[in-house]
Amino acid sequence: MPCLIPSRTESNKVIEPSLDGILSDLIGFNSHLIPPMTAKFTQPLWPLLVATLLVLVSLYGGGIPSSHANSSVVDDCSVAAGQLIRNWPNTDFSRCTVDPGEVVSGGPGKDGIFSIDEPQFVPATKVTLDDREPVITLVLGDTAKAYPLRVLTWHEIVNDTMGDIPVAVTYCPLCNAAIVFDRRVGNKVLDFGTTGSLRHSDLLMYDRLSQSCWQQYTGQAIFGEFAGAALSMLPSRLESFLDFKNDYPQGEVLVPGNPNLRPYGANRYVGYDSSGFPFLYRGEVPEGIGPLERVVVVDDRAWSLALLQQDKQIRDRNLVLTWRPGQASALDTREIKNGREVGSVTAQHLAANGALEDAVYHVTFAFVFHAFKPDQPIIVEW
């Protein structure tokens, strides 16, 4: 029987420490223009960060009455939205599914972290990437593409098209959430950008058609014309570049349009995933597991990555989770390629014909799963 953790009801310069990138964004500048500091994510710094967070809460709607957290119930929150309306005058805040008071500034404003809208690719055989570097692998039909986190960590959204399917490839560094969406809603095709705001420390996107605000982790629109709508998630993998090129030697790899625009390959959040507590998060954390411990999420269920690393494979009814070594953490060392071992996960469903088919999954942090699924346990023993 699985052992469950109960949920609680209650100039292109590489930045040395992760705190530099975060604080520079917090005050509204690009981190590559700010000289490095010597501070790390250590306990004495957290009072300063908490004080900063309290200021943000006061500026961005703290104390607003609670609404329908993580639901699709649509309410009018135009009175409570306050600062959000001033920043987003073209968003329809008469349609909301969450409390605007849960939104905080991440530092950069709208499109301060700009999406990639005209992605460029080169054959995998012509790319110089370390074998351990993490990539988001997307396969649709006969096309296979890899989106390296060395690029996504600086842009967070890639608006792309594979065949006749418009897709949004997204990555939230603070949540380590790599999720791919179909950009179609009804008969409309949406393009996405970054809002510069966060909810539960997770990226908030906006669509350029309606200016609606979308939660990256769930794919749901939370404010605006599309409030209550949800994007379809597409099966993808977060794996090592070596795995990608071995499986898809004819595949293509995303490369920066201007390789000098950002210090691609550098981690702007050095030491974040071993820092002890998530940045710009003010919710509860799960008991019995560290908030920044990785978990594997499929639908509404989560397994500790440490458990999967130990067992190598977990079978639950028709779901098969498999772990293998070879992938570096994108949120550890200064250079992503040197990050500590976290390994790669595949999540597959056993089809009626006995074949294994990729399932939608993601590897995120325990606090993220708990924030969005507070009533669901995390499995730590099998």
Structural overview:
A five-stranded mixed beta sheet has the order 1-25-19-18-24. It has a five-stranded antiparallel beta sheet with strand order 2-11-12-13-14. The protein has a five-stranded mixed beta sheet with strand order 3-17-5-4-16. A hairpin with a 2-residue loop joins strand 18 (294-298) and strand 19 (301-304). It contains seven helices and 25 strands. It has a domain at 272-381. The radius of gyration is 20 Å and the shape is globular. 15% of the residues lie in helices and 30% in strands. With 382 residues, the protein is α+β, with helices and mostly antiparallel strands.
Give a short overview.
The chain has 382 residues and is of the alpha+beta class. It contains seven helices and 25 strands.
